[in-house]
Design brief:
There is one protein chain. By secondary structure, the chain is an alpha/beta fold. Helices cover about 35% and strands about 15% of the residues.
């Protein structure tokens, strides 16, 4: 039975009244208070509030969807019209069809403390604990599926290990049970660049430069070779420079240096005991991923004691395949969701 437009549809404290995308689809963008005693594993204070979003027909199965560190609660287009970060995969008629499922997402928490000499720490387990609190707040004992990409997949693995009875299935895309040492090396340099920018009063420039470096690790050699010439333009700039600068500047519009430092470090602090994961798992790897190489995900698949499948998607988009490869990833999501027991 559908909720009436003026009746409460869940336990959220509304940012605004629920919006109805279609007559049967309730879109609730909300903020709730975290408990005052909610502390992070490293001891830092958690933020006071959690921003979250629940979209779909009331009473439909709940799918948790989380992405990379720059992703937010707007998996599909936001209430203000801003494009959703996973709109190619989630929405009406997409792989995660909001006419059949409710999508639950939230903005990642970071420590409620200024960045000083030490980067305040937040772990993927902390994010998993936030999700468990959110599910309790909504009165949900378990979710039909957790679909996590990159950092979101790490959180999914942490959630599956810590809360084995609270999800029916996990789909982890381009995410491992630990950070690859080479990827940690790249992120370490990125964080040094950002901290140097903060110390020199050029925080935005430092963050933009760190993002430029990150883009060279997210994508593949094959894609760059196909897209960019190695011959400089008449002004001496190489074609790839404009792309990298644009990506860096765009990143600074949605990410603060302090938030980046905390979430980047969170990736490198991530370690999950895969042998504790008992829920069925679907792993999806990109053949050209430099951040989480296919071999690392193959090793993860062997550690998981429960039912586990691994699909390697051919792609030139490297780690960013989870944002690009609808043709390879969407069918796996659709098949997995359709085969889940009711």
């Amino acid at each position: 039975m559908l909720a009436k437009k003026n009746s409460p549809v869940c336990a959220f404290d509304f940012i605004e009244q629920p919006r109805y995308i279609l007559p049967e689809i309730v879109d609730i963008d909300s903020v709730i208070a975290l408990p005052p005693d909610f502390r992070l594993a490293a001891g830092d204070r958690a933020p006071a509030e959690l921003r979250c979003r629940l979209v779909g027909p009331e009473g439909a199965p709940v799918i948790v969807v989380l992405g990379g560190i720059s992703a937010d609660r707007h998996t599909i287009d936001a209430l203000d019209g801003a494009p959703g970060w996973w709109r190619k995969f989630a929405g009406a008629g997409r792989a995660i069809d909001i006419r059949k499922y409710r999508i639950l997402s939230f903005d990642y928490i970071t420590p409620d403390a200024p960045v000083a000499e030490r980067i305040p720490a937040v772990s993927t387990l902390d994010q998993a604990r936030v999700l468990a609190f959110l599910l309790d707040h909504l009165g949900l004992a378990r979710v039909r599926c957790f679909i996590g990409s990159s950092y979101g997949g790490m959180i999914g693995l942490a959630f599956a290990a810590a809360y084995p009875g609270r999800l029916d299935h996990l789909i982890a895309i381009s995410a491992g049970d630990y950070p690859h040492p080479m990827a940690t090396a790249w992120r370490t340099v990125q964080r040094q660049i950002v901290r140097l920018g903060l110390k020199s009063g050029q925080a935005r420039a430092g963050l933009a430069l760190a993002r430029q470096l990150a883009m060279t690790t997210y994508r593949s050699h094959e894609e760059f070779a196909a897209r960019f010439s190695s011959i400089p333009a008449c002004d001496g700039a190489f074609p790839v420079e404009g792309y990298l600068k644009a990506q860096g500047n765009k990143f600074t519009d949605r990410m603060s240096p302090e938030r980046f430092l905390a979430l980047s470090l969170s990736i490198d602090l991530h370690h999950v005991d895969a042998t504790a994961i008992t829920a069925p798992v679907t792993l999806i790897a990109s053949t050209s991923d430099q951040i989480v190489p296919p071999g690392q995900m193959q090793r993860l698949a062997k550690k998981i004691p429960g039912p586990c499948s691994l699909a390697a998607i051919p792609s030139v988009f490297g780690h960013d395949a989870f944002l690009k490869e609808t043709g390879g990833i969407s069918p796996i999501i659709i098949k997995t969701l359709e085969e889940l027991p009711v």
